[in-house]
Structure formats: C-alpha cells, structure tokens
Amino acid sequence: MEYKRGQFKINGKHSEEFTVYMRDRPERPSAGRVIELRERPGNDSIVTDFKYYKNVERVISCYAKASDFESVPFLENEISNWLDTGSYSDFIVYYDPHYIYQAIVTSPPNFTGQRKNGLLIPFEFTVSMRPFKQSRTGSVWRSNEKLLSNTENYPSKPKIHIIGSGDISFWIDDHKYDLKQIEEEIFIDSFIEESYRYLGNQLQTLDHKTLFKDYPILDKGENKIKWTGNVKELRIQPRWWTKV
C-alpha cells in the first residue's frame, strides 16, 4: 500500500480510515545501546556493555477531519479506541515506508481542538518502539535459495520453514543445524527461539526435534545456504532489519 504524506498504519488499521494525518514528522531519536559507566580513580571509567538496545519513544502529532460538528465526539471516540493498544503492532509511516516498526501506544490521544479549529481535530499520542525496524523486503519468503545477501548493518533473525521428513541438516555458512525425525514440516523461528508446526489450527511445539542450542542468524553480507536429507523445500523469511 502506498503511504501519502501524513499517513500511517498502527494496530492493524490505516490512518486514512479515520481521516487522520500526521501534522509533521516527529523528533526521531535513535535507539541507544544499554551500557554502564563505573567511575574509578584517575578520571577513568569502566564500561559494561549489556549488548542490547533500549526502546525509543516518539510523540506523534496529528489532526483528524470531521464531516460536521456533530460527528466530532464520535470521531474522537473512534480514534481513542483505535489507539488503545495492549501489545506491539506493526507501525508504518509515510516518511519511512520501506521499514516496519514495532510500536505500542504508551500515552493515549490527547485532543486539544476547540470550536475555532472548525472541523479539524488536533491531537497527539506517544508510542514506544522496539529498537529495530524490519525491512519490508525481508518479509518475503525465499524458496530453496543457496545464497542470501544481507545489505543491512545488523545480523537478522530469520524464520525458516522446512518441508521434508526424517533426519535433516542444514548449514548457514559454516554453522550446522541438525534436525531429527521431522514429520512433514517444521518452522524454526530465530526471533522467538522456538520450533513448531501447525496441525490444523493447532500449533505443535517441536523444540525436541532440534539438536542445536543457538538459533540461526543471517550475518551482514553473503550467507551461503545448503542442506542434506529428504528436503522437498527449504523456505527462509530473512527478516532483514536495522536499528531505529
């Protein structure tokens, strides 16, 4: 979907459904690495790097356009319900349309309009975003590819879908991943570090089928893929991402 100036999507709905537009681009702080500095004699400090990043907050300033004055309170209620989020959701914004953020609303909309604003309803709300945003091209599944190139600056955590049976091994560069007695298929999700398959509408955990401790990652640059065993298809959703 094309995103025109001021448009965005969050909590599964497009802002256009509510005639809502961003008034301008928000301030865009980058995700900060979590470190600790401990002072010691000699005007020096010891650095402890915890090797993860903090969420970032952004204040989103918007306006909505009502069809008439009587519909203003109804539109405000609809917007409040839309932005009442209890979990992270995809957040796509017009000024960065090639990436998908994960965001949750932490401060609900604050409507400030008065009658002098006419049919325009100004408001703002705050989102907290996970520190990495996913490239939209990284959500595309790749089938039986022997080489994947990660052009982002950070390793990604892919989802791998193997259709096959029996004992199977696959490699990403020199890293080998063994699977035992697969029945028809298995999903290996490196982001949540779980393996499973679907039986109808039920999800069946298959962690006991994996013989590796560390889940696969796709490093920066080229990643060579190969496999052995009775594999009909090996599909990878690479989930390329970069820091916010």
Which helices and strands occur, and which strands form pairs?
Layout: E1 8-10, E2 13-14, E3 20-22, E4 33-40, E5 44-53, E6 56-65, H1 72-82, E7 89-93, E8 99-111, E9 120-129, E10 132-135, E11 142-143, E12 147-150, E13 159-172, E14 175-182, E15 185-189, E16 194-199, E17 202-205, E18 221-237, E19 241-243
Overview of this protein structure:
By secondary structure, the protein is mostly beta strands. It has 2 domains: 8-130, Elongation Factor Tu (Ef-tu), domain 3 (Beta Barrel); 137-243, Sandwich (Jelly Rolls), CATH 2.60.120.860. It has 1 helix and 19 strands. It has one helix at residues 72-82; strands at 8-10, 13-14, 20-22, 33-40, 44-53, 56-65, 89-93, 99-111, 120-129, 132-135, 142-143, 147-150, 159-172, 175-182, 185-189, 194-199, 202-205, 221-237, 241-243. The strands form 3 sheets. Strands 1, 2, 3, 6, 7, 8, 9, 10 and 19 form a 9-stranded antiparallel beta sheet that branches. Strands 11, 12, 13, 14, 15, 16, 17 and 18 form an 8-stranded antiparallel beta sheet that branches. Strands 4-5 form a two-stranded antiparallel sheet. A hairpin with a 5-residue loop joins strand 7 (89-93) and strand 8.
